[in-house]
Amino acid sequence: MRRVVVTGMALASPLGCSRETAFERLQKYENCVVHDEKLNEFERMNCKLVAPVQGFVLPEHFNRKVLRTMGPVSIMSVATAEEALKDAGLLGDEIITSGRCGVSSGSSSGSLETLVDFHSMQVTKEVKNVTSGSYVKMMPQTTAVNISLYFKTVGRLIATSTACTSGSMGIGYAYEAIKFGLQDVMIAGGAEELDPSQVAVFDTLYATTQKNSTPKLTPSPFDKNRDGLVVGEGAGTLILEEYEHAKKRGAKIYAEIIGFGTSTDGTHITNPNKETMKNALELALKDAGISADEIGYVNAHGTATMQGDIAETNATYDVFKRKVPISSIKSYTGHTLGACGAIEAILSIDMAHKKWFAPTINLNEVDENCGDLDYIKGQGREIDTKIVMSNNFAFGGINTSLIFKCI
Q1: Band of residue 309 on the pLDDT scale cut at 50, 70, 90
Q2: Euclidean distance between CA atoms 319 and 288, whole angstroms
Q3: Given 3-state DSSP classes, what are the helix, strand and coil percentages for the chain, each rounded to the nearest 5?
């Protein structure tokens, strides 16, 4: 059982495309939600709000050949992977192509824009716009494959297309690959690009916010008057490394991953199950070999949906049995779907280093049906803790919990 550490991190998010910018934006207590005029084109689309990536610039060296198999979701994945490898001091290192480095990444789906070309083929009965790269852009494993192709990795490739746990599952499976000696380095994370169809999915489930005229007041996780989520986009990539390998080369270490737990509900495709959510948290604690009392902060999935908030917070209370400090980054970024687990892991690690934890904004009155926890609201909280937990839950009843320790 080997130790696994985080030596590189990078993100593209509604909060910005550098960790410094993202952290500064958290301290402004203002969300990244905007009105999207394009959503007005769709009849019976109730929600008109989204949280797009801010400040992302296509790298100049991403030429036509590189972009041939990439839609926006893969572009953000590869770009953040490159920045994370730079941050880790491993970009161009021989370990990347040695077979001892793998990729673990995912998204809810590939680039949906390419579906238009396939649809056109069915309507016109003419293979006109479909190219050799069309399917690669669209396929669910597009982020992992494009990262591997770009950096020429020949180790393990794990495609974690598990909806809203794609990013956290990417990190968790990468952690296990190193922990059990299968790889020494892993490029791990998740991503998502905005598309009207994603808004429509949640809209038809009555899970989106209707506060179209007041975008700065929504989403509001855990609040008594919350009315649903906002769809966002982004990407996050972490470089995971075996501890002795990182130590030998003198790498800076942001944190150690000490626990990972995952479970499935086995009950309903969209309705969360408190008991199996709880199980994922308990599995992470068991893996870490610690008690819940040692964790100083919990980054919640916190989507601002009624069933999700209530089930998650009560599951958390059942595990901690105390008012553990908790907040939701989605109150700033919206729900970045496949990217959220990676983006939130990065921000949780950064907050732990700075000993300052962002509040859930737009949280005015905690829903009495939510668990009895210490909801950080109003202002940020100074907490001196080395150990934090980050939880994510997805359609299909897929639950994940990650525990990080700053060292």
Answers
A1: very high
A2: 14
A3: 40, 20, 40
The secondary structure of 42-82 as a DSSP string is STT----EEE---S----TT--HHHHTT--HHHHHHHHHHH
Catalytic residue among 17, 32, 47, 301: 301
Question: Encoding tokens for residue 306?
Answer: 């009624």
pTM: 0.97
Amino acid in position 226: R
Q: Quote the distance between the C-alpha of residue 138 and its chain's center.
A: 20
Among residues 32, 47, 101, 164, the one annotated as catalytic is 164
Alpha-carbon radius of gyration of the chain: 20
Rounded Cα distance, 264 and 395, in Å? 10
Q: What does pLDDT average to over the chain?
A: 97
- Comparing CA positions, the residue from 173, 176, 148 lying closest to residue 161 is 173
CB atoms inside a 10 Å sphere around CB 34 = 17
Among all chains, which residue has been given the structure tokens 């769709």? Answer: 42
pLDDT in tens, 262-295: 999 999 988 999 999 999 999 999 999 999 999 9
From the CB of residue 122, how many other CB atoms can be counted at a distance below 10 Å? 8
In sign, the C-alpha dihedral spanning 216, 339, 231, 202 is negative
238/138 Cα distance (integer angstroms)? 23
Q: What percent of the chain has pLDDT over 90?
A: 93
Antiparallel, parallel or unpaired: β 398-405 and 387-394:
antiparallel
Q: Return the half-sphere exposure (C-beta side, CA atoms, 13 A cut-off) of residue 341.
A: 36
Which two three-digit tokens encode residue 144? 């992992």
Task: Look up 335 and say whether it is catalytic.
Answer: yes
Q: Among residues 188, 187, 146, 143, which one has the least CA distance to residue 169?
A: 188
**How many Å apart are CA 350 and CA 318, to the nearest integer?**
27
Instruction: Give the residue among 383, 304, 350 at the shortest CA–CA distance from 15.
Output: 350
Which of 17, 101, 335, 370 does the annotation list as catalytic?
335
| Interatomic CA distance for residues 340 and 234, integer angstroms | 8
* pLDDT the model gives residue 72: 97
The full length of the chain comes to 407
Q: Is 268 a catalytic residue?
A: no
Question: Does 164 participate in catalysis according to the annotation?
Answer: yes
- For the chain, domains (ranges, CATH) are 4-405 (3.40.47.10)
